[in-house]
Fold these 4 entries.
Entry 1:
Amino acid sequence: GAVVSQHPSWVICKSGTSVKIECRSLDFQATTMFWYRQFPKQSLMLMATSNEGSKATYEQGVEKDKFLINHASLTLSTLTVTSAHPEDSSFYICSAPGQGASYEQYFGPGTRLTVT
Amino acid sequence: GENVEQHPSTLSVQEGDSAVIKCTYSDSASNYFPWYKQELGKRPQLIIDIRSNVGEKKDQRIAVTLNKTAKHFSLHITETQPEDSAVYFCAAQSGGYQKVTFGTGTKLQVIP
């Protein structure tokens, strides 16, 4: 089956620094990937759609200059949280759509970000 | 955009009883409705899904029903077991390669 990985699985950074999260499709190509954020005891909220070879599409209220997305290849999308603050602490999850007729999304294992 | 409402937010049932979670969606363009189980700190796990051209789907103890006219869909878990305890999310999607809009989640507790 389709596998999506994320790295790192958890990261602690200091306020004001930047942190990069990688999302990889391991056995399939993904021209589109999605980035979600999940705060404790809340649902997953879409932050942005990552498109290979073009600019990401951000959801309303998500600062594109703060959450930089780069989809440089058909198997890799990165999310960089710039000038991180404690309120950015969250669980970040990426997903990639299935292939062919499948509508299923394949989720990465998530990255727990803690900003101190 | 799509809005998915889910209830109840918490649900406690005795082991062996049934559990029902209900969702409504707003966008008539949505045509794929997956249900996810999420354990603490883990990724959402697809447990069952249904497309809009189907009214009901069953997989062992889990079933999903869809009323496209009313924009309602529901998850039914029968013969619940303690390992069914988790947070469940309904979701809606308007086809392949499209973003997933999640419901607010239901924390299910199965009491042994």
Entry 2:
Amino acid sequence: AQTVTQSQPEMSVQEAETVTLSCTYDTSESNYYLFWYKQPPSRQMILVIRQEAYKQQNATENRFSVNFQKAAKSFSLKISDSQLGDTAMYFCAFMNGNQFYFGTGTSLTVIP
Amino acid sequence: DADVTQTPRNRITKTGKRIMLECSQTKGHDRMYWYRQDPGLGLRLIYYSFDVKDINKGEISDGYSVSRQAQAKFSLSLESAIPNQTALYFCATSKRGTSGNNEQFFGPGTRLTVL
């Protein structure tokens, strides 16, 4: 079975600073996909960034980037130049082509 | 217009009542999913469907049932609601196939409270 672990239930960061959210996963599969979703107070789930396991290059989307370490089964999210609108719950997710598996989430607060 | 809609958005009911949560999508996706979200537990899969004639149990299907009435509609039922089914419920859709573009698209969620 696949498991996704987010070991930081809560984090905070000063506005304009950089923060990294951790995610590890456990799988025996070689081909899979990883995602970070954001859930702001509106509770809508929004895709932030995705990574395909067969790609060695780390994905980047504007201020969001990942550090994908396949051997270590680690997939951390870095948010640069944090903004107040980044305050949200962040979920790491693993997909093997059939099902998605989500971590328990990290609540991020950006402090003005 | 929203691509994935859920009705109702909020519902308060009593123990023992039958409740149906509905999900509709205009994305043309084959795959649909129902999750529940609880504080500290993340999203847990209840049921999923890869097409109209395909229904699969997820991690926590006990106490729930589903119906895939059409490609665009997937409803979740609680036959006899109990207080520990109080949660935020999400419907999601995704495309068929194994691709990094097959992320899930979520509805706005239904907040269900069982008294």
Entry 3:
Amino acid sequence: GAGVSQSPSNKVTEKGKDVELRCDPISGHTALYWYRQRLGQGLEFLIYFQGNSAPDKSGLPSDRFSAERTGESVSTLTIQRTQQEDSAVYLCASSFGGGPTDTQYFGPGTRLTVL
Amino acid sequence: AQRVTQPEKLLSVFKGAPVELKCNYSYSGSPELFWYVQYSRQRLQLLLRHISRESIKGFTADLNKGETSFHLKKPFAQEEDSAMYYCALASGTYKYIFGTGTRLKVLA
């Protein structure tokens, strides 16, 4: 079946504008992760959703970042008043159960460039 | 602090030569460790996990708790192994910490 999809694949925006990134997880996967990958750096955990439980937002770098997920389906990551340091690839991953024995399946990422 | 360190940004080896991609970790509990790989123009995907003690595409990785290492090894590199490799640690039940990655180039 289809894997994790993300849109848009590329987004160029001006500093101060808001952006919304979308992730469609694999159907039936209860866990969903967002990561940020800055140039030359590793993946930085942002937020974790598991079913209907309260999300773990501990990785969000500032209150300009927020994310939502409707049930076990689509998730959106919103960045308000974007800054140049927000430029990165934003990766979404989903897994069946969310535990360390559950394989994470990654989307292709959204490359965000803030001018 | 919990951390995953991959000291090499780039590793170049000739085809047929042995490969070792280094990964060291810092974690106070009992770690769950993984290697992820990203081939050119493809998505990041799981290569192997230490709990499975498996060999995937000829790669193996052994957890050494004394040295806090989880190095990825392959006895004979192939050109199709060229990719970006990330070591990752599962912190707690679901949170992952990734290293900065090592780009492996296998030269003909």
Entry 4:
Amino acid sequence: SQTIHQWPATLVQPVGSPLSLECTVEGTSNPNLYWYRQAAGRGLQLLFYSVGIGQISSEVPQNLSASRPQDRQFILSSKKLLLSDSGFYLCAWSPLGGETQYFGPGTRLLVL
Amino acid sequence: AQKITQTQPGMFVQEKEAVTLDCTYDTSDPSYGLFWYKQPSSGEMIFLIYQGSYDQQNATEGRYSLNFQKARKSANLVISASQLGDSAMYFCAMREVFSGGYNKLIFGAGTRLAVHP
């Protein structure tokens, strides 16, 4: 069966520091991968999606970037965090050609 | 533009009773998909149920059923025999298909369900 992992689970970082969040998927090949952000008490906003290695598309302009160095690895990064980057970050995958997205456990990021 | 509306910020239900969570959508695409996810306090988004726009019958998954009324553009989630563990945030979402082979999900604002003993 397929599983999706995210780490770290929680992170507290000072403003201006770098960020690296990692997401990996097991048990499937060629998945579509997604990064979402959820502000407190709100719905999810799509940040990035990827249909293959090295293929990244951004939904909204922001202080973040994403990379996909391997088929089942998706990384969310920032060179300098802002206070507004605080939130709950969720990684998701969907099968190639599939409808449903399956989410990881998420990372809570607090920028101070 | 596609849009998902959940008008109930909070709902209460007695344990073992049924509850309906409302969701309306707006799209001009003839082909679309509707999803419901559950988000407990731990934060993980748990997929519950899916309904395709061409599906003739309402989707069901155990105690979850989707009341799909295409003409009204509504896709309400019905939870039967509520349990204390059903207390969570519930999000309705709609699939938007883009060229290049990926699906984007548009989420509603969510409904917080509290199940009382």
